[in-house]
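Input chain follows. Return structure tokens only.
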Amino acid sequence: MKKILISDKLAEDGINFLNVQDGIQIHIQTGLNEDELCEIIPEFDALLIRSDTQVTAKVLKAATRLKVVGRAGIGVDNVDLNAATEQGVIVMNTPDANATTTAELAIAHMFSLSRNLPFANQSVREGKWERSKLMGAEIAHKTLAVLGFGTIGRIVAQRGNGLGMRVIAYDPFVAPDVFAIHGAEMVDLETLVKQADYLTLHCPLLEKTKNIIGREQLAMMKKSARLINCARGGLVDESALYDALKDGRIAGAALDVYEQEPPKDSPLLTLDNVVFTPHLGASTKEAQVAVSVEIARQAVKYLQTGEAVNALNLPRLSAEELSKAQPFMNLANILGKVLVGLIDQPIQKLEVAVYGKAAEVKIRPISAEAMVGLLGGQLSTPVNRVNVENIAKRQGITLIESQTEESEGYQSLIKITGHCADKSVSLAGTLLGNQHPRLVSINHFEIEVVPEGALLITRHDDKPGVIAAISSILGVANINITRMQVSIADEHQLAMMVISISDPLNEQVLKSVCEVPAVHTARQIAL
């Protein structure tokens, strides 16, 4: 008999599902503190939670029988993933169970903005009849611009098509074929913003996406455009949005998420052309039922068959397996991080080839780590070796693997190639002393680099003065150069330079490097 502890409130449908499963016994006890949970957890095989229960290292150490922690919802900030992995406990969530609910809220906001519904309701309640003042706009034949094309963004696109809208979308981590399948036209960010009648945000909040809609983007939008954010606070520069709305540079906005929640002192609250909701993205009865039933199904499937759906970590590896594979996996992860920094288009295909000693271990953990490096930190859900293959498929990325025991010039070599619609980028790396990673080539440029910290990578004309010009810009910005490697020029008299720098460059300094006349491209990568 497998025993499941439910320590947070789950919908009855999920509990009912568990009650009829053969070989499953459930126990419900909510409101437990850490010590109380430690006292009872040793007798359970699975723990189902929401956001209240704190699954700490102490709890996991006490959970001598525990095999799986299931989170009904997306976020797992209340679970110590590292401790769970060390204890061999699988942690899983339900990333898509509330996708429809969030997408529908975005569509609802679009209607509210178009027909002034909140203000019309208030007007009638106040005894007014302001039909001319509350003139609206039709949605049909307008352009719905979707920023972020994951599960929620794709559902929004499908709903937009059903409403007779033209749908365009931007997501640099989704392959072009995926857009067409879901009825959207793939465009770049500038085109998305300029052509939007309704701009709806559905991307994660990362360093790259913070304030992705700022003053520059808002200035590009139509005066009749409306902005909707049901994704994450911080994607929109609220100060810039306030100015744009107040000055009539865009027509309206609908917000479900905010930089500070609740937005008590936000100047946006003083404007009449904004619709507000209190972070209701997943707040429907159906969504609460869906996450509860889904996590119950996943937990039972894992206990009965060992299949880990939506797992966020891996059981502990044996010391021998980890010792043999870890250096190559680490190198592959680094190569993936460098690759994503060098490509500005969605990757359709990733090739991973291993040579020499790297071919003596199984290739799949190496390939998985390359994909983790490529996709990790780019999406809203945690990415690891357990879930990365499914995530890559969802993004439209095909994986191709090859192994060769021979390795010309190196005892071991890992090569990864990212193929986009109209170009490819290849990287190769090796290990020094079987431990220390080195990047040894970028495309056809042979260049040995210690891949750590912040890197500035330039492709430039091979002529005197280029290195001095770039060094001068960095010096003025008080950026120290810790290492510098320059390749031999190719047949086009182009060279590549990789500079290890003491601190990441801000946008203005990076722009100054790009404006050096001989520099063709300059990219910054943080490792």
